[in-house]
Design goal:
With 398 residues, the protein is an alpha/beta fold. The chain has 13 helices and 15 strands. The longest helix has 19 residues. The structure holds 4'-deoxy-4'-aminopyridoxal-5'-phosphate (PMP).
Length: 398
């Protein structure tokens, strides 16, 4: 009989020649447990999904409650489904007034697609501006604006008319014109290895968008729901987008994304054509019930308040000459090493010693640290000890 490991390689479509291959049996809080009983501390939260830890009791209770009522009922937007309505009401009550209408999707990349379609309808324009090293998803619209040619080349032709600009460069701003439908950007570039906007950059983009009638789309799929030390990252920069993209942690561990805009803008999806965006499972009631419970945990447990303290614990304990730079916002952190080979050796060694981490798609020389926001001081101490041990081992420097 084939082992699950063999079946995985045989029947699960492989997209990499080096999958992590951890065989996880159970997850709870900040810990993963594999089938041999080995315990791992999860420092990446399934790539910024498990912001409140795995299987938080409040999320499980909300899922169970919804399971006893109904699962899928009808395609998007037809029936009044309480979990969707209640979650949209909660989300919008924590957003600026212009972000009052939520379209729930299945995933982050679908939120990007929906936002691009909406921007075309609202502005009547077709050109998009995005930034080098940005990541907005892997479907063809999202690939068209991805900030790295390597991932796109094989799939051309993609959507034409997009410009890729340098993040944090003044001349980028001048490229926004009255032909630009939307500027789409991560306020903090995650897969670039946690690159923060320079002082005034987001504000200047906002102003230029206002001057040219261009929509500003913030992709907070990775930075949203508390990850960066505020519920939404844009709050820290005082710049409000016209469309906000959320996913990942939005569903509390269940699949869920959203694009959020003003009701006036969203109205464009109701005509010419009617059903301007359509999805069968978007806003699944179980996902929405889970997402609302997860957001309530972030709010009620004041999780964002503890973030800078936790980040400082990581900063203080992760000191070594091999760490070239420590970039961070909240609990989204990147440790930069001399190169990809060094980083991958440290990551492997960490995983071997029970600390799950990885690198960034566009910054393979940087190690990702994005633990659940609930991680304790003691757990941070243990994790940092293992990381430093791994760095010493790989560098040969104490
Ligand atoms: N935007 C950003 C910033 C992301 O980090 C991701 C996922 N890594 C996506 C979009 C795409 O989300 P999904 O994988 O749910 O399609």
């Amino acid at each position: 009989m084939l082992s699950e490991r063999q079946l995985f390689l045989r029947h699960i479509a492989q997209t990499s020649d080096a999958p992590m291959m951890l065989e996880i049996e159970k997850a709870a809080g900040v810990f993963l447990y594999d089938t041999s009983g080995k315990k791992y501390i999860d420092l990446i939260s399934g790539i910024s999904v498990s912001n409140i830890g795995h299987r938080h009791p409040a999320v499980i209770a909300a899922i169970e409650k919804q399971l006893s009522k109904y699962l899928h009922l009808m395609v998007y937007g037809e029936y009044i489904q309480s979990p969707q309505v209640q979650f949209a009401a909660l989300l919008t009550s924590h957003l600026p007034a212009n972000l009052d209408s939520v379209y729930f999707t299945n995933s982050g990349t679908e939120a990007t697609e929906g936002a691009m379609k909406l921007a075309k309808r609202v502005t009547g324009r077709t050109e998009f501006i995005s930034f080098l090293h940005s990541y907005h998803g892997h479907t063809q619209g999202a690939l068209s604006i991805m900030g790295n040619e390597y991932w796109r080349r094989a799939f051309r032709p993609l959507i034409p008319g997009n410009q890729l600009l340098h993040f944090n460069r003044q001349e980028s701003i001048d490229s926004i014109t009255d032909a630009t439908a939307a500027v789409i950007m991560e306020p903090v570039q995650a897969e670039a290895g946690v690159v923060l906007p320079a002082a005034g950059f987001l504000q200047q983009i906002r102003k230029r968008c206002n001057d040219t009638g261009t929509l500003l789309i913030f992709d907070e799929i990775q930075t949203g729901m508390g990850r960066t030390g505020s519920l939404f990252c844009f709050e820290q920069y005082g710049v409000v987008p016209d469309i906000l993209l959320l996913a990942k942690a939005l569903g509390g561990g269940m699949p869920l994304g959203a694009f959020i805009a003003s009701a006036a803008h969203m109205h464009q999806l109701t005509h010419h054509p009617v059903l301007g965006h359509l999805t069968t499972f978007g806003g699944h009631p179980v996902s929405c019930a889970a997402g609302k419970a997860a957001m309530e945990v972030v709010l009620n447990e004041g999780l964002v308040n503890g973030i800078s303290y936790r980040q400082n614990l990581f900063r203080q304990q992760l000191q070594h000459v091999s760490i070239k730079e420590f970039r961070s916002i909240g609990l989204l952190m990147a440790l930069e090493f001399e190169d990809e080979v060094f980083c991958k050796k440290v990551v492997s060694s960490c995983i071997h010693s029970g600390v799950v981490t990885d690198w960034f798609l566009f910054a393979p020389q940087c190690m990702r640290l994005a633990p659940p926001l609930t991680i304790s001081e003691e757990e941070i101490g243990q994790a940092c000890e293992s990381i430093i041990r791994a760095i010493r081992e790989v560098s040969g420097i104490n």
